[in-house]
Amino acid sequence: MVVIIHSNKKRIKFNIVKFLLSAFLIFSCVFGTMTVLNKDNSALSAYEQCETVTVLSGDTLWSIAQEIEGGKTDTRVIVNDIIKQNKLNSSEVYAGQTLEIPAKYTLK
Description:
Layout (H helix, E strand, L loop, with lengths): L8 H34 L2 H4 L2 E4 L6 H7 L7 H12 L11 E4 L7
Antiparallel strand pairs: 1-2
Helix pairs in contact: 3-4
């Protein structure tokens, strides 16, 4: 009588490989999603770290924008960035109001 013993070693190895590939795929998806979400948030990184300025009597957004260092940037662009950063409805500001200046700009 001949007894044939079937080896399940190949099946076990195949299952281990499937498990490891599945685990890697799940890890990649989770890590990839977190990375993408982090990149979306970091697109605003120039606006996240800001200097805070208190508007003085007689100040305007234009005068504040002109005080920002580096005459390379058009004052209109700086005013627009300040409006966006502070979610203002208009360019009007009042004494005592605090404004966040985007970190990509530095005050003189």
